[in-house]
Amino acid sequence: MPLNFVISPLSSTLNTALQNKIDQKTKPLGSLGQLESLALQVGRCQNSLSPSLNKPCILIFAGDHGIVEAGVSAYPQTVTAQMVANFLAGGAAISVFARQHGIDLLIVDAGVNADLNSHPKLVDAKIGKSTQNFLTHPAMSAEACIKALHTGAEQVRRQYEGGCNCIGFGEMGIGNTSSAALLMHRLTGLSLVRCVGRGTGLNNAQLQHKVTVLQRALNKHKDATEPLSVLAAFGGFEVAMMVGAYLKAAELGMLILVDGFIAGTALLVAHRLHPQVLEYCVFSHVSSEQGHQALLHQFKAKPLLNLELRLGEGSGIALAYPLVQSAVMFLNEMATFAEAGVDH
């Protein structure tokens, strides 16, 4: 299954017309700040002077990580399946926020180490029950990595065909901050210490142990340097699915809302494969997880929120979505100077 995503750069045809429409609204030039650049981006993404947000959706990809065996997380692997059940029961933070803002929420079992009960909001797309421990083996085979990418892309295609044009990706997987830190380090060249954080709440001794374990893993997989080989060596099934999801969403011209550190490292892999993917991305927030700010700097991104979140799940996406709505609504509904009879 070759990777054959075709992502077109955003058209500049409507740039001038969109900017003129923004500037003619009843306000001083530039006074809506970041909302103005956001409105311009959404209009360019949809190639429309009157963009719309249709059937917004968050896909949460869930998977377990073999590296948890090495004691890099404060929580056991069983928590992944328990949290998936919490999502489906509507009791998690993302469940509450998605419900609040009318965002559809689907959970994709990418590789949870449990047999999950069927549910209307659960997609069974399991590649395997957990990745392998990357201290001793690559996290996944090259074939499983490609399969995960295509599976993630397929989930996005289904949402698009159902009328969704605005999508975001969350994740759940105990141990995935370790995976993300290694992806970030190997693909950016930033120091490992800069990329590793406390994840689910490690104390200082546990954090030092995590760094030591991850350094050993890096030494084990020195030959993994290209994006897909790095992803196979250190990634999670849920992270690999997010990579494919980003690429497919951009290929389909969808507006993509980006969550925090884990979701950002999946985007980093996607960006290394297809740099144009960034043009379709809105960065929802800056996480308090160590490394996320440096990751955003790699993207030259300007996130909408800074709420010191470090939850994952797509929570930042749901919280930022009303700002995207506001950008679209002022573009479409705010009066111009001529319409309002206001001098300028």
Notable traits:
alpha/beta; 9% strand; 14 helices; Rossmann fold; 6 strands; 344 residues
Written description of the protein model:
The protein has two domains: 15-52 and 329-340, 5,6-Dimethylbenzimidazole Phosphoribosyltransferase, Chain: A, domain 1, CATH 1.10.1610.10; 57-323, Nicotinate-nucleotide-dimethylbenzimidazole phosphoribosyltransferase (CobT), large domain (Rossmann fold). The model has no long low-confidence stretch (mean pLDDT 96). Strand 5, helix 11 and strand 6 form a beta-alpha-beta unit. The longest helix is centred in the middle third of the chain and has 20 residues, at 142-161. It is globular and about 70 Å long. It has 344 residues and is of the alpha/beta class. The chain is built from 14 helices and six strands. Helix 5 crosses helix 9, helix 5 (142-161) crosses helix 10 and helix 6 packs antiparallel against helix 9 (227-234). Strands 3-2-1-4-5-6 form a six-stranded parallel sheet, with helices on both faces.
List the helices and strands and how they pair.
Layout: H1 15-23, H2 34-46, E1 57-63, H3 78-89, H4 93-100, E2 104-111, E3 122-124, H5 142-161, E4 166-172, H6 176-188, H7 192-195, H8 204-220, H9 227-234, H10 237-251, E5 255-258, H11 261-273, E6 281-283, H12 292-299, H13 315-333, H14 337-340
Parallel strand pairs: 1-2, 1-4, 2-3, 4-5, 5-6
Helix pairs in contact: 1-2, 2-13, 5-9, 5-10, 6-9, 6-11, 10-11, 11-12
- SS-based structural class? alpha/beta
Going across the major beta sheet, what is the strand order? 3-2-1-4-5-6
Q: Name the beta content range.
A: 5-15%
Helix content: 40-55%
